[in-house]
Amino acid sequence: MTAIFKASDILLISFIVLAFSLCPLLLSPLLSTAYIWATMNAMKRTGDQEGRAMQAEVAREWVTYKQAGKISGLSRTTLRKLAGEGSIKVRHVGKAVRINKQSLDRYMNAEAPAGTK
Hints:
By secondary structure, this protein is mainly alpha-helical. The protein is built from 5 helices and 3 strands. It folds into 2 domains: 7-57; 62-109. Helix 1 runs antiparallel to helix 2 (24-57). The longest helix has 34 residues, at 24-57.
């Protein structure tokens, strides 16, 4: 696990705290700005790390036509045809359509019937 604050953030905050203790009226706005800046940078780095971890962990069970097309290399028209035939599972959620990735994988990995290429 990496540190939330970088050494440069800690040095900046330490310097500002020292300067603030010497001259509080002049440096109050500077302290606020620097603290906010350092905190925002730390939060952004933490969010980026969590986002990458989340993307690595999440494997979607249901995908859109666009995602299914990228996964399989099939066109939207072909995917709709397969859904209509019942070869792949689809679900309608309002106007949205989701394709079951497992059924798409099963279809793509199935051997072709005899007599077809």
